[in-house]
Each structure stands twice: as C-alpha cells, then as structure tokens.
Amino acid sequence: MTLHGYRHSVYARIARMVCAEKPIAYGWVEVNPFAEPLPDGFLALHPFRRVPVLEHDGFVLYETVAITRYLDDAFPGAALQPADPRDRARMTQIIAIIDSYGYWPMVRQVFSHRVFRSRLGEPVDEAQIRTGLQASHKVLDALERLTGPDGYLAGSALSLADLHVAPMMAYFTAAAEGQAALAAYPQLSAWWEAMRGRQSLRETDPESFTG
Ligand SMILES: N[C@@H](CCC(=O)N[C@@H](CS)C(=O)NCC(=O)O)C(=O)O
Q1: Which residues of the chain have pLDDT under 50?
Q2: How far is the CA of 9 from the centre of ligand 1 (A)?
C-alpha cells in the first residue's frame, strides 16, 4: 500500500494516523500539491490535485474519508468505526463538520497565517486570522456538544472521527489564538489532552516525519 501525500498536509496526516493505529505498513511518495509542476501522472491519480491518494494493488483512491474507511475495512487490526448505527452516524457527521466548516478557518486561515506563513517568512494576513477564529468557534462549539461521555468524539472508543479531527486540532492549537479558543470548551479540551498524548499523533508529527 502506498500513500501519496505532503508531509505538512493535515489530510495526509489523517491517513497516516489511521495506518499507525491499525497498524498498516505503507510506502510514501512525497507530493507538494501547492508546488508547480506536479509530478508527472499525478493528475491521473487525483484530478482535483489534492493529497492524499492511496494506491493498493492497482486500486487508486482519493478523498480522505474514502481512504480511511477503506483502510479500516480492508486491513486487519483495530476496528475504527463503531458498530452501533447512531455512533457510526455521529462519526460520519463529525467528519463532515470538520471537513465542511473546520478545515478552512482552523487550518488554512488561523494555522497557515499565524504559524506556517510566519515560519516561511511569507506575509501574514491578520484579517484572515480574525475571520478564521470567528468561524472556528462555531465548529468548536458543535464538537463540544457532540463529544461523547467516554471522551471520544463518537461512541465509546477511538474512531475515524477522532483521527480526522486530531491533525486539524494539532495545527489549530499550534497558534496561540487557537489554543486560547479551545480552552473555552472543557469536553473538547479534555479530548484533545488525551489525543495529543497518543503515539499515532506523535509519530505522524510533520516536523519529524521523513516519509
Ligand atoms: N477533500 C479532500 C481535501 C484534501 C486537501 O484539501 N488536501 C490539501 C492538503 S491538506 C491539498 O491537497 N491542498 C492543495 C490545494 O488546496 O491546492 C480530502 O478529503 O482528501
């Protein structure tokens, strides 16, 4: 099994976390989707020019939620999708919330501008950070209400929902404003405290990941 991804990508990290939790061994092809030119043939793998892409014995798959479900369904190891229909629906709902409403403000506005761009010496747009933070509160509030009594986002055990949100929360809280925003949500803060201690999160840290 091979993953094509960019080491700084939250979406590629979600797939890498699932591999770490199952566990599944994989090969890695580094592709920076923001750089020109893309590697030859990459658009045939992903016409929307994003990462990650999975290749498994000739089967090519893009879209992270499809990849993580495939990894969970097709490989042995820890089961990462709840059996109960309501918990499973909750898992799907949380993944949809973070993809639809969380990724852009939390990662591309707050993290990218406050942390990534300043690290690269690129211009930081404070207005992007402000609007990103504003939009993030609604997402944090929704996740706070949905966090289960056992400290997981869906059901009573680790699921694809936790693994989908964690890399985005890691980036969001790398910005001081993100960390301060999360502190207002006690259930979600406790969830994040537990998640950030997991081996799968630590071993997929973009800063130390070499592929
Ligand atoms: N819907 C896609 C989103 C993947 C995505 O946006 N990946 C980012 C990196 S974290 C990317 O490739 N961005 C390139 C771009 O926006 O041009 C998925 O779930 O896999």
Answers
A1: none
A2: 8
pLDDT of 209 reads 87
Residues with CB under 6 A from ligand 1: 9-11, 33-34, 49-51, 63-64
* pLDDT > 70 in the chain, percent: 100
Q: Please tell me the predicted confidence (pLDDT) of residue 193.
A: 98
Locate tokens 């969001």: which residue?
172
The domain defined by 85-198 folds into Glutathione S-transferase Yfyf (Class Pi); Chain A, domain 2 (1.20.1050)
Kindly give the distance from the C-alpha atom of residue 102 to the centroid of ligand 1, in angstroms, as a whole number: 13
Closest ligand 1 atom to residue 11 Cα is 10
